């Protein structure tokens, strides 16, 4: 069984970051305090998974340690005494430090009341045994593993286990983290943990929309979020968050298409998740989880376009008509509809717009039209638009063709 991770730390951390960690340990030794690496990064060191998201805990005053560290590395420090945390920014990176703490939950779903504590108390407040380990970063004990909850054994058995039977009652967001870690790591929920999760599903109602949204966003940032969503659905978590949500084979297939198209996956995943909701349902879901106005606008755009896709289904739809239908919609909404629709023709036209048509512009611009005698104003804009339509439909191919067409319009008194 692994009892020291010094070699893994030296192999996994960039040299400069390792130097900063060792320096922080030296500072703590001189202060008579102790420094630890805690949380998921310890688990990932054991699993040989890359993770540079270091969570450093000081068994002492994190703010003062951070100040000393900033002086030594020529960096700047921001402290948050109320929370016992600090961040040191230096030339090529940053380091986050927090004081070891204990927590008390006054009621289910409430944010905990915290006080300064020992490293053992800090580990016992965490969510799962696999995240409740620490690595000593002191000069003398560098690399020694602290594992009061049996996390190493659960890692060997590929198991996600909560620390006590009120864990999901105290903080129901742990249910969503449980399925996220389970699916990311290829682990399984311990039988008693799964039983307690099923028992406590309704406790999600004690959690604010902001906190649930945050956990959902973390799931959507996973490499294959459909796996965690499916598991959350099977366990009743998704329907507890919002009953009309589905994480079925349709979602799984569309998520895979998203990755194959090499587009921004996170936004597209969210739009696909709500794609089959009615506008009213989507609005209710957005309000429940307190999404930003920008996200709400993207969802509204997507559903409005979804309901107007029939305008792209006619056999002889021109390229200019495709642009006329799609301009004004967010690109993410167009991409989501291209992935979501079952109509191959519509999907091809949406993709054609994204890949090519939206980039097509006439050779002539506003200044060139003014040199041909047009005055700035609405008519000039109309002719530029008409020129673009003509180029899209290949009625003009060269700048000379465009000039000839403009002169024809002007002689006929047309605006395009």
Give the name of the CATH architecture of the largest domain.
Answer: 2-Layer Sandwich
State the separation between the terminal residues, measured CA to CA: 78 Å
Overall 3D geometry?
A: elongated
CATH H level, superfamily name of the largest domain? Beta Polymerase, domain 2
Your description of this structure?
With 416 residues, this protein is of the alpha+beta class. The chain has four domains: 1-154, Beta Polymerase, domain 2 (2-Layer Sandwich), CATH 3.30.460; 158-241, Hydrophobic Seed Protein (Orthogonal Bundle); 263-359; 366-412, no CATH class. Helix content is 53%, strand content 11%. The protein is built from 22 helices and eleven strands. The strands form three sheets. Strands 3-4-5-2-1-8-9 form a seven-stranded mixed sheet. The chain has a two-stranded antiparallel ribbon with strand order 6-7. Strands 10-11 form a two-stranded parallel ribbon. A hairpin with a 4-residue loop joins strand 3 and strand 4 (85-90). Helix 8 runs parallel beside helix 10 (209-220) and helix 16 (293-306) packs across helix 18. The longest helix is centred in the first third of the chain and has 17 residues, at 15-31. The protein starts with 5 loop residues before the first helix and ends with a helix. The model has no long low-confidence stretch (mean pLDDT 92).
